[in-house]
Amino acid sequence: MPALLVSIPLGELASRVEQALAGCLALARYELAFDVEPVAVTLRGQVTSYYHKQLAQESLQRVAGVRAIRNEIKVCRPTASRSTANASS
Questions:
Q1: Which of 3, 47, 59, 66 is close enough to 52 for a disulfide, judged by CB 3.0 to 4.6 Å?
Q2: What count of other Cβ atoms lies within 10 Å of the Cβ of residue 28?
């Protein structure tokens, strides 16, 4: 039996997405943004690991009304601090 698709107002869906991202403590230190469209939610921002990128996407998969996710989050590894760089010299 096919799944029943229920249309949710975009404003309500945006609120659900925001709550899902805010509820994930591991993502709290990142500034993530999203766009909600009738077809998909697009995630944007920067994180320091592929784990956090995947975590953001998975947190939205449980949100009622999200049909598709475009994960455009960039992974930027933190640069070595001066003390770490000096210690290896």
A1: 47
A2: 10
List the chain domain ranges: 29-87
By C-alpha distance, which of 15, 12, 34, 35 is closest to 23? Answer: 15
Cβ atoms 56, 32 nearer than 8 A: yes
As a whole number of angstroms, the distance between CA 66 and CA 20 comes to 11
Whether the CB-CB separation of 63 and 18 falls below 8 Å is answered with no
If the chain, 89 residues long, is cut into consecutive pieces of 10 residues, what is the mean pLDDT of each piece?
66 96 96 94 97 97 94 90 54
pLDDT at 79: 77
Which pLDDT belongs to residue 36?
96
Beta bridge partners of 46: 74
The pTM assigned to this predicted structure is 0.78
Topology adopted by domain 29-87: Alpha-Beta Plaits (3.30.70)
**Alpha helices, DSSP H, located in the chain:** 10-22, 50-61, 82-87
